[in-house]
Design goal:
single chain, 4-stranded parallel sheet, 5-stranded parallel sheet, 13% strand, alpha/beta, 39% helix, 16 helices
Length: 445
């Protein structure tokens, strides 16, 4: 189920730079338990494979706590499954996960500790591009491959460290392209219908939230959709990613009454704050799509209420009903282990689980945890199957095989379904084209 993205901003890049960068990297000492200079007759390492990661885990950690906790469950579920089947190359997997408190400074400290003090074999990424960029720089400095699932902003791949070492690999869809199925949906409307629409693009100042919204605005404007509030005032620039900034930005949108709201959000609290203000102002956009937040299953619906969730859309590369046997097995196991329902499984779980699957494929293909060999393998053009679908990396570590979908909460917020790209052949159900009015009970929080 591959979605064609006619305006895909970033695609496969020539591989020559990768070969050069990896060659330079090979001359340095490589992290991991294997050495590229080890004798072929040396005994195989039978000790555990230790993998380090840093996530936002405690309630005091800030905005990324729900995502960090979901990622932790995904990582642990993957490790549990691997170990139940004998480990990797006969070695058990041990996870060492630290709490970064949603802090770029702390995430750097955490990965320095994991690599230099704990001597982990491999590193997995945190949640958010904001934290992935500095974390991946630490990994590059130490010669480690950095496999992650929630750092898809252009800034991550364009970082000087990744341009030099080509060590970062994001198993998920590049974020800049995530909203393009929605743009394609609008593009299929008649010119007169498109030109009658207005749209607002409020966005938090974040490397993850902004690129897909900015690209969507550019393309929708070209299609004749009129942008409101974009040349002056509070909506002219991204608002600070802090709670005190959400209500003023939401007020500004509600005052303009646009037909479409494309919200650059990174988490549930941002979307929740906008929905609360919209309800208080008695304003319901005809179409409401948020970059992130509504994909977090029960964490979203419990915060905003199922009734108000109805009609809200979000882009992603995965959902609990994804037609993939491995994904279905993971969802079933997750519900059995953690409770709840399939529709409540956070997409972050699948992203984290996919990180593990990519690492496992690289370890098996290279025969160990030599990070230089793993980087070379992941840049070889190999296609790896995960619970999110196919993964194949370009020279910057973007997954160019990823599919883009848009999902929507329907049936009074009880079902999270794929609606774009349209067509049953893509696994989609009919889109709820107009969001219902807000429920009578106000949004919590």
């Amino acid at each position: 189920m591959r979605c064609n993205l006619p305006w895909s901003a970033r695609n496969a890049i020539a591989m020559g730079a990768v070969a050069l960068a990896v060659g330079v990297l090979a001359a340095c000492s490589s992290g991991g338990s294997s050495s590229p200079s080890a004798s072929a007759s040396a005994p195989a390492n039978t000790g555990p494979i230790t993998i380090g990661a840093s996530l936002s885990l405690t309630p005091a950690s800030g905005n990324f706590t729900a995502d960090g906790q979901a990622f932790e469950k995904g990582y642990k579920l993957w490790a549990k499954d691997v170990n139940a089947h004998g480990g990797l190359l006969g070695r058990q997997v041990v996870l060492k996960i630290m709490d970064n408190q949603s802090s770029p400074n702390q995430v750097v400290t955490d990965y320095q500790t994991l690599i230099s003090s704990d001597h982990v074999d491999l590193t997995f990424g945190p949640f958010s591009s904001l934290l992935t960029t500095p974390a991946s720089q630490v990994a590059a400095h130490n010669g480690y491959a950095f496999i992650e699932g929630a750092g898809g902003a252009p800034a991550v791949f364009d970082a000087a460290s990744n341009q030099a070492a080509h060590n970062t690999f994001d198993v998920s869809l590049p974020v800049e392209d995530t909203i393009m199925p929605f743009v394609d949906y609008i593009a299929k409307m008649s010119p007169s219908e498109r030109q009658s629409l207005t749209a607002a693009y409020p966005m938090a100042s974040d490397p993850f939230a902004d690129p897909p919204v900015q690209l969507a605005e550019q393309k929708l404007h070209a299609l004749g959709v009129r942008t409101v509030g974009g040349s002056s005032g509070i909506l002219a620039n991204p608002f600070p990613e802090q709670t005190s900034s959400y209500a003023p930005a939401a007020d500004a949108v509600a005052a303009l009454h646009p037909d479409i709201v494309v919200l650059g959000s990174t988490d549930v609290p941002t979307v929740q704050a906008f929905m609360r203000v919209f309800e208080q102002k008695n304003y319901t956009p005809k179409m409401f799509i948020a970059a992130s937040g509504p994909d977090q299953g029960a964490a979203f619906t419990s915060a905003v209420g199922t009734g108000d969730a109805t009609g809200v859309m979000v882009p992603n590369g995965w959902y609990p009903g994804f037609r993939n046997s491995a994904s279905q097995a993971m969802v079933s196991e997750y519900v059995k282990l953690y409770g709840g329902s399939a529709s409540g499984v956070n997409a972050d779980v699948a992203e984290a689980y996919s990180v593990g699957q990519v690492a496992a494929a690289a370890i098996k293909a290279t025969g160990g945890t030599d990070n230089t060999k793993i980087i070379q393998y992941l840049h070889s053009g190999a296609t790896i199957q995960t619970v999110q679908g196919s993964v194949q990396f370009n020279s910057l570590g973007e997954n160019v095989a990823a599919a883009a979908f848009v999902f929507q909460w329907q049936d009074n917020g009880t079902k999270f379904v794929q609606v774009l790209p349209q067509g049953s052949q893509n696994g989609s159900v009919p889109i709820l084209a107009t969001k219902p009015a807000w429920a009578t009970t106000s949004i919590t929080g």
